Amino acid sequence: MPSYSQGDLSKYPGDHIKFSPFTEAYQQIKVTSNGYVEYRNITDSMETGQITNPKPISSAKITGYLIKNDTRYLYYSHHITGVPDTKVAKSGNKQYRLAITNLHQPFSMFDGDQGALLFSKYQIKNTAYFTRIGAFGV
């Protein structure tokens, strides 16, 4: 899982777009603690506490991994719908690979009620993702 994260990687909308992690509709790739990669479309409202579509649309069991510099390579047996993985073999349990690169670009967002939330940027193929890595109160 990404460092200091719960394994949730959400698409980053870009630096020029104002977004809020508190009321968000987003696509999410999750690396679970029990060894799966999952893809979800989530509508999350922390204001109301309601989460829509919390179940994964597709998933695969991680069958191998490799850590090289800032990139984590996760291997599994079949394509996960919605995940920008790469086919690397024709057969076996390591046919697909997901490369997750830590960009080492932390950022924070301040909310008057909850303090500051800390996030970190990651890259999968040519798309930036973010994950929550911490918080501190006011």
Topology of this protein?
Blueprint: E1 8-11, E2 23-31, E3 36-45, E4 50-52, E5 58-61, E6 64-68, E7 71-76, E8 86-87, E9 96-111, E10 115-124, E11 127-136
Antiparallel strand pairs: 1-2, 1-11, 2-3, 3-4, 3-5, 6-7, 7-9, 8-9, 9-10, 10-11
Number of helices: 0
List the secondary-structure elements in sequence, H or E: EEEEEEEEEEE
Structural class: mainly beta
Largest sheet: 11 strands, antiparallel
Sheet-strand content, in percent, reads: over 45%
Spans of 5+ residues with little confidence (pLDDT < 50)? none
Number of domains: 1
Outline: elongated
Q: What integer value in Å does the Rg equal?
A: 16 Å
The tally of strands reads 11
Helix content: under 10%
N- and C-termini, Cα separation:
28 Å
Q: State mean pLDDT (0 to 100 scale).
A: 81
Write a short abstract of this structure.
This protein has 138 residues and is an all-beta fold. The chain is built from no helices and eleven strands.
Description of the structure:
By secondary structure, the protein is mainly β. It has one domain (8-136). Helices cover 0% and strands 57% of the residues. The protein contains no helices and eleven strands. It has strands spanning 8-11, 23-31, 36-45, 50-52, 58-61, 64-68, 71-76, 86-87, 96-111, 115-124, 127-136. Strands 1, 2, 3, 4, 5, 6, 7, 8, 9, 10 and 11 form an eleven-stranded antiparallel β-sheet that branches. The protein is elongated and about 50 Å long. The two termini are 28 Å apart. The mean pLDDT is 81.
Key structural traits:
138 residues; mainly beta; 11-stranded antiparallel beta sheet; 11 strands
